[in-house]
Design goal:
Layout (H helix, E strand, L loop, with lengths): L8 E5 L5 H17 L2 E5 L7 H12 L6 E4 L9 H7 L11 H8 L8 H12 L8 E5 L6 H10 L3 E5 L6 H5 L4 E4 L17 E4 L3 E3 L2 H8 L3 H10 L2 E3 L12 E2 L6 H20 L9
Helix pairs in contact: 1-10, 2-3, 5-6, 5-10
Bound molecules: NADPH dihydro-nicotinamide-adenine-dinucleotide phosphate (NDP).
The site of NADPH dihydro-nicotinamide-adenine-dinucleotide phosphate has 25 residues, from helix 10.
């Protein structure tokens, strides 16, 4: 790593009081403290207008000590989210959502890559899963996860199929995948009949289960989960049914798989943004 002479700075904007967003933001601020990134939190009221948020973002864009700006989604209904995200300076867009960064990714130029997709690639690389020449199937085509994951896999020379709610015979298409990425938002939807035996399965989904019947469908007989469900009334589940772990070659857990990597990549992007803004981009960060 090249020294840039000062701590990278992160500004987190959390509008209103969405409990899940508050948990995510706490995790991000804690991680930045742990790695030595300077962070500031802005908490506009639930009633904040688009104009108010635009002026906050513009003031953060203009500050030299702030390298990364994170606007926690979702924003309240009255706010034009696209307009707010478009206003973030692409050089400080550590979520990688700005069209400039989307374009840089699709043309394989150095830029800021969305954190969850970057985390998926990091898991594959660090687990020594071959990517080039492999069949990769991504279920989900959101701008935040599915599309950028597909683009990163394509850039790494996988043969990529992207599926969505209109895909015909989804299980058969998924079964082609040597690598199967589930980013759907439907608990346990990917059952064993979707998976090629021995495939690498990356479960991006985070779903909160509070319905007892749904809990039974996914976790019956799992004592640890049953205890947690009894104590809290809900548990987290991925998009992949736990039965898949019996026949996958490798699989990420939920919680504890892609989620922590998302935060790690956010830290990485903040450091990367600080370096890029000062012309210190090391080749390994490109
Ligand atoms: P979106 O709701 O934006 O996208 C879901 C995608 O899944 C859409 O493309 C949709 O298709 C597709 N889909 C929905 N139902 C089906 C179906 N029955 N068959 C096939 N495809 C279907 O979700 P996100 O991409 O934002 O998030 C996906 C999951 O990942 C969620 O559980 C979310 O909580 C989790 N997540 C986890 C993160 C982490 O850090 N681990 C970070 C971000 C998200 P269509 O386009 O046709 O509607």
């Amino acid at each position: 790593m090249t020294a840039v002479g000062r701590r990278p700075g992160l500004a987190v904007v959390l509008v209103g009081h969405n409990p899940a967003s508050e948990v995510y933001v706490r995790g991000k601020v804690k991680a930045s403290e742990e790695v030595g990134i300077y962070s500031e939190q802005y908490t506009p009221a639930e009633t904040a207008t688009t104009t108010e948020l635009l002026s906050l973002i513009e003031s953060l864009n203009g500050r030299d000590d702030i390298d990364g700006i994170l606007v926690q989604l979702p924003l309240p209904a009255q706010v034009d989210s696209k307009k707010v995200l478009m206003t973030v300076d692409p050089a400080k867009d550590i979520d990688g959502f700005h069209p400039v960064n989307v374009g840089l990714l699709s043309t394989q130029r150095p830029g800021l890559v969305p954190c969850t997709p970057a985390g998926v690639m990091e898991i594959l690389r660090r687990s020594n899963i071959p990517i080039a020449g492999q069949e990769a199937v991504v279920v989900g085509r959101s701008d935040i996860v599915g599309k950028p994951v597909a683009m990163l896999l394509l850039n790494a020379n996988a043969t990529v199929t992207v599926c969505h709610s209109k895909t015909r015979d989804l299980p058969a298409v998924c079964q082609r995948g040597d690598i199967l990425v589930a980013a759907i938002g439907r608990a346990g939807m990917i059952t064993r009949d979707f998976v090629k035996p021995g495939a690498t399965v990356i479960d991006v989904g985070i779903n909160r289960i509070s319905d007892p019947a749904e809990f039974q469908r996914l976790f019956a007989g799992n004592e640890k989960r049953e205890e947690a469900f009894r104590a809290k009334g809900s548990v987290l589940a991925g998009d992949v049914h736990p039965e898949v772990s019996e026949m996958a070659g490798a699989i990420t857990p939920v919680p504890g798989g892609v989620g922590p990597l998302t935060i790690a990549m956010l830290m990485y992007n903040t450091v990367k943004a600080a370096k890029m803004r000062r012309g210190f981009l090391a080749p390994e960060l490109a």
